[in-house]
Amino acid sequence: MNLLLTRYEGLKRPVWFIFSGMGSQWPGMGSKLLQFPIISESIQRSHDILKEKGLDLINIINSTDTNIFKNILHSFVGITSIQIALVDFMMVLDITPDGYVGHSVGELGCAYMDGCFTAEETLLAAYYRGLASIETDLIPGYMAAIERMAGLNPKGYNDTNSYFDETEYENRPNNQLGLEDSDEETRERD
């Protein structure tokens, strides 16, 4: 199928890059993208970095094994390496976003996009985050909500000028972490 592309000279709409988090991966997610040389070169560079850590990124991205992403480390490095490659690709195409946003592991894609991290630093941050998830005794199905209490002024406003209701936390013992499960019950753990 041949497509004729023409340049639209009208109103410019904003372009945003959205860097997704966990759950956006699927078996074989990168196999079709590797046909683009810029992407395959970026993935190869990431593969070489992870090879030193004992991971085969090419296999992780190309595998159609439905169990490949049951290993959270594979998910972290798979998503991150694809995001790095897509940023590289967009830069070669001279597509510069008006903004970008990331969630979870996608925040690493943002760090690469804005130059805070190199590709290697981004990938290694994903690797070690995944490794920490594997090596930590996590409670299945739980998510931690960490609240920043520092930075509140005496009037109850935080450093972003949004109001913070201190009464909600008056009876909460120090150093406890609120954990929520899928039933929305709140439990606390020291």
The radius of gyration computed from the alpha-carbon positions, rounded to a whole number of angstroms, is 21 Å
Q: What is the β-strand count?
A: 5
Beta-strand residue percentage: 5-15%
- The arrangement of helices and strands along the chain is EHHHEHHEEE
In quaternary terms, these chains amount to single chain
**Number of discrete domains:** 2
Question: Structural class of the secondary structure composition?
Answer: alpha+beta
Tell me the name of the CATH homologous superfamily of the largest domain. Malonyl-Coenzyme A Acyl Carrier Protein, domain 2
Helix content: 25-40%
Strand and helix map with partners:
Blueprint: E1 16-19, H1 37-51, H2 57-62, H3 72-92, E2 99-102, H4 106-113, H5 119-135, E3 143-144, E4 177-180, E5 186-189
Helix pairs in contact: 1-3, 3-4, 3-5, 4-5
InterPro entries: Ac_transferase_dom_sf, Acyl_transferase_dom, Acyl_Trfase/lysoPLipase, PKS_NRPS_Biosynth_Enz
Biased composition (Acidic residues): 180-190
Organism: Timema podura (Walking stick)
How would you describe this structure to a colleague?
By secondary structure, this protein is an alpha+beta fold. It folds into 2 domains: 16-135, Malonyl-Coenzyme A Acyl Carrier Protein, domain 2 (3-Layer(aba) Sandwich), CATH 3.40.366; 139-190, no CATH class. Helices cover 35% and strands 9% of the residues. It has helices at 37-51, 57-62, 72-92, 106-113, 119-135; strands spanning 16-19, 99-102, 143-144, 177-180, 186-189. The strands form 2 sheets. Strands 3-4-5 form a 3-stranded antiparallel sheet, with no helix packed on it. Strands 1-2 form a two-stranded parallel sheet. A hairpin with a 5-residue loop joins β4 (177-180) and β5. α1 (37-51) runs antiparallel to α3 (72-92), α3 runs parallel beside α4 and α3 packs antiparallel against α5 (119-135). The chain is globular, with a radius of gyration of 21 Å. The termini are far apart.
